[in-house]
Structures are given as structure tokens and as C-alpha cells.
Amino acid sequence: MDFSLIVLTLAISFLLFFFLHKLLSSSKRQSRNVREVAGAWAIIGHVHLLNGPQMTHKIFGHMADKYGPIFQLKLRVVIVSDHKIAKECFTTNDMAFANQPKNIASEMLGYNNVMFGFGPYGLYWREMRKIVPTELISARRIDMFGHIRVLEVKSVVKEIYEYWSKIKNSNYLNSVVKMEMKEWFGNLIMNTMVKMLFEVQYTGYVGRRQQV
Fold this sequence. Notes:
mainly alpha
């Protein structure tokens, strides 16, 4: 038999097996899982549906009107818009939502699932749940970094004022500074986090950038 014919036969057999497996698995998932939003792409899932001018909560509201009070996205996310169902998720069925499905990304990037937010439910997860509220996100720990947040707000106001003064001196008739507030808040949050971790500034607020 010709080699090209063998390769073609194997390729067709693989494709048929793949589509049959996907068809059977999707029918099983539909019978036991919540509704899934249509329009998912192969690799990025539903990310493209959230990347638009409309606010995220409004997008979820339109999806809830179409798919019901509970639905899922191909982002490993289940959206619940009914308060009674949400209460059951956090009380009666909290164990079902505490466990995360294993995947290669969390295993490789999370050092074999030691990042407890992505790890499976177990003894390690329960111990980390006790430590995090008291050591990482407690009121005392947040107050310890309060001076960094104040410093970053002062820095951004100072940079905007210096930039405005520079424009005013060069062009007195047009002394208006236009700021992209989305980028402004993004830089403020990024600088605050990097300053807490590495004690350096990641990026300037007005036209300057400094990598860590």
C-alpha cells in the first residue's frame, strides 16, 4: 500500500474518532451540567465576549436573561445571578465548589498545585485557608502597606501636575491634559502591587516606563 494512502487513512480515522468522542462527551455534559454560553472559540473560550465597550456585569446580565439564573463560561467559571442558588452554592454545596479540577497549567505554574486557590480540596487547602485570612489579608497586614498606597496616589498627582505645568509653559493657549483613566487606574494598581513586593516602581503614570 502506498505510504501517502496509509497516512491519509490514519488521519481520517483520527478525525472520526476525535469528532465522535467530542460528540459523546458533549452530550453527556449537557445532560448533567448547567447551560453553557454559545460562541466559545477553540483556545480562548469566551474571552472575546468579555472584551468590549460594555461593562462586564451588564454582559453577564444579558447572558442571564438568555440562559437563565445559572450558566457557565469556558473560562472554568460558573455565573449565578439568583440569590437563592448562590446561597446554596456557599452553604449546602460549598464542598462541590471548593474542589478545583486538575489541569496542566495549575500543576506547572503553581508548583504542583501548591497555589491553594487553584489546588484541589484537601488537608493542605484547609490549612492554607486558615493561614491566609490571618496572615495575608488581615486588617493588620493591610494597614502595614497603607503608606505605599498613599505614596502612589501622591506620586500620580505629582506627575500629572508636572506634566500639566510642562504643557502650560510650552503652549499657554492649550494647557489641557487629557488622561486615559482606565490606563491611569491600571498603572496605579500595578505600581502599588509591585511596590509592595519589590519596593520599586514598575511604570510611570505619564508617558514614562520603568521595568522591574
